Amino acid sequence: MHHFQYKNEELYCEDLPLRKLAEEVGTPCYVYSHSTLHHHFSVFDQSFASIPHLTCYSVKANSNLALLKLFASLGGGVDIVSGGELFRARKAGIPPERIVYSGVGKTVDEIDFALKEGILMFNIESTEELKAINSRAGVLGCRARVALRVNPDVDPKTHPYISTGMKKSKFGIAADSALQAYDEARSLDHIEIMGVDCHIGSQLTEISPFVDALRRLRALIDQLNAMGISIRYLDLGGGLGIPYDQEAPPHPRDYAQAILQELQGLSCTLIFEPGRVIVGNAGVLVTRVLYTKKTEMKNFVIVDAGMNDLIRPSLYGSYHQIQPIQKRTAETQVVDVVGPICESGDFLAHDRALPVVGGGDLLAVMSAGAYGFTMSSNYNSRPRAVEVLVKGDRYHIIRKRESWEDMVRLEAIPDIF
Predict the structure, then answer these.
(1) With 60 as the cut, is the pLDDT of residue 163 above it?
(2) CA distance 335 to 328
(3) What is the phi/psi pair of residue 232, to 5°?
(4) What does residue 398 show for φ and ψ, rounded to 5 degrees?
(5) Is 8 contained in some domain?
(6) What pairing do the DSSP bridges indicate for beta strands 283-294 and 299-303?
(7) Active-site positions?
């Protein structure tokens, strides 16, 4: 469910026409629906209401402070992968006891920051990282709460770049090495074992990989209990997909039903790390047509948003539906929608049948709420887009558009010329 709908042939976000918004804040702009964000988080979280659990939103999907504040107000925590994300989470008022820290490359400064903040736990990715965190906890005179991220070698059936739970992945500890790693962890003076963690990938559209991974984790937990290692938290990660094109991912309630059936008799608090499923369809990227161009081979629609604004199509070959903000004609044309970046890989769509458009027309790139702005850059010295949150018929700028001055503020020319 999302709140981007046509009314009288004009696309709205909730009760606000996107045309009016674009006129006032300019393009390109990211637009998020408050109602959609609230609904998606609530539906996911309430699907597990019958058991002890914590829904830790995955900050990397969209790290805007306003969104983090909204999820905090709904009782959510966060899954972070950097010190910067921890800073954002605390700035947004996320309590430390609702924060889990994942990621393969935690630095000493980041580890110290998390220990001082008193986060719920670190998700450990390697035995070397485990030793490093034990050492830093010793220096700081505390104990680090940890779960070990176990790689169950389950094929998530998704794009290889966002598959994280197979043997060849850089993430996690191999399942057949996990018992030894836990045995090592309990021998360390400044480590407190809290749980088991797993994350098999992103944009999953089937339930079976989750179930396969969970069954392997249950077997591991039974073995750990037999060793006298008590597991209080089971972190099942995120990864539930959304419809971009023809995908038909399971509803969170169906996902929850399958998980709960497999968990009968297990006395752990569950942690989930949803990201895309919460924010993906809650946002769009609004862009303006600059020019149209026809060659012997192609019809091009050149817009003011490029791969620096939304890199998913260039990086993954990802599909995003593109819709006119005002429906003016039923006539269609097969086009490439491309941006202004000086790269042949700068495109938002290839060979797409779209209504005929001209210079000045507005387009909405749908399902852009996840891994959109958060992966954007200043490539070609292009300022990053404005971010806007819509609630009802009003909007709030939640990140100002960057200026040229903003882009050079941290740079300096040394006095050597």
Answers:
(1) no
(2) 17
(3) -95, -30
(4) -105, -5
(5) yes
(6) antiparallel
(7) 342
